């Protein structure tokens, strides 16, 4: 491994280790990441379970239908919560010290992204255990489940890039609502409660153009072993990453210029 690449990897891993250490030693920082998706799962899969009995609802199991949503939602909010951590690091001065200590400043984004993925994997494990225990029917093959995981990881990475771009521009926890609001909008204008064919009004139009719709529909088909447009979902997620990567890089430059 070349020295520059070795230094980059070491810096990213150290930043990720610090974030993970903070999460482990301060459970209050990881609990919202766990409680939030579990609340959504209980509210939708439990409170709206009667929707699955409607004649026009053509999906095999409503718990499974909502489990995929919660999986993708937690992928996005894993990035959002990491954005809060970045903003806090800048507000309290630690991130500025990391900028001074790191030759390739992109390692900061990489390190935060690694910690966000580990946070998300923990949340996905807990949500999956709860979903299976409450009756989710996961009948897709191992390959199908791997494709779902790939889509979720890509969404998580795109969300981290978006959140870090905003956090590095504002460098204060006061940016938290700005980081969180777009995530809520993209999540809640997707086909959350019912398939897209059953949505009416302006939400139906919004869901047609919502990038999360493709990932949700692919995930919901894959998890039951049905044909899925995986390439579209991966392409949408890759497009989000490409756009947000530039957004995060320009945010990093602004943070560097601010000193």
Strand content: under 5%
Average residue-wise pLDDT: 89
- Indicate the structural class: mainly alpha
Order of helices and strands: HHHHHHHHHH
Main beta sheet strand tally, sense and closure? none
Low-confidence stretches: none
Describe the structure.
The chain is elongated and about 60 Å long. Helix 5 packs across helix 6 (142-170), helix 6 (142-170) runs antiparallel to helix 9 (211-222) and helix 9 packs across helix 10 (230-258). Helices cover 77% and strands 0% of the residues. It contains ten helices and no strands. The protein is mainly α and 259 residues long. It has helices spanning 3-25, 27-46, 62-91, 94-101, 106-133, 142-170, 176-188, 202-209, 211-222, 230-258. The longest helix has 30 residues, at 62-91. 41% of the residues are buried.
Task: Break the fold down into its secondary structure elements and pairings.
Elements: H1 3-25, H2 27-46, H3 62-91, H4 94-101, H5 106-133, H6 142-170, H7 176-188, H8 202-209, H9 211-222, H10 230-258
Helix pairs in contact: 1-2, 1-5, 2-3, 2-5, 3-5, 3-6, 3-7, 3-9, 5-6, 6-7, 6-9, 6-10, 9-10
């Amino acid at each position: 491994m070349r020295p520059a690449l070795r230094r980059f990897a070491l810096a990213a891993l150290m930043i990720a280790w610090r974030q993970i250490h903070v999460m482990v030693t301060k459970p209050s920082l990881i609990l919202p990441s766990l409680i939030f998706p579990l609340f959504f799962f209980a509210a939708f899969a439990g409170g709206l379970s009667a929707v699955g009995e409607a004649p026009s609802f053509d999906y095999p199991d409503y718990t499974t239908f909502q489990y995929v949503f919660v999986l993708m939602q937690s992928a996005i909010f894993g990035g959002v919560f990491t954005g809060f951590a970045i903003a806090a690091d800048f507000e309290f001065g630690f991130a500025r010290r990391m900028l001074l200590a790191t030759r390739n400043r992109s390692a900061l984004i990489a390190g935060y992204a690694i910690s966000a993925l580990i946070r998300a994997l923990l949340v996905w494990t807990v949500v999956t255990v709860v979903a299976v225990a409450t009756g989710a029917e996961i009948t897709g093959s191992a390959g199908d489940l791997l494709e779902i995981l790939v889509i979720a990881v890509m969404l998580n990475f795109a969300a981290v890039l978006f959140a870090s771009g905003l956090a590095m521009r504002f460098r204060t926890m006061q940016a938290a609502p700005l980081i969180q609001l777009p995530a809520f909008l993209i999540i809640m204008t997707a086909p959350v409660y019912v398939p897209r064919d059953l949505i009416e009004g302006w939400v139906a139009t919004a869901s047609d153009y919502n990038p999360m719709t493709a990932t949700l529909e692919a995930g919901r088909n894959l998890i039951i072993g049905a044909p899925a447009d995986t390439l579209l979902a991966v392409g949408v997620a890759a497009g989000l990453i490409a756009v947000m990567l530039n957004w995060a890089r320009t945010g990093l430059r602004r943070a560097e210029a601010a000193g």
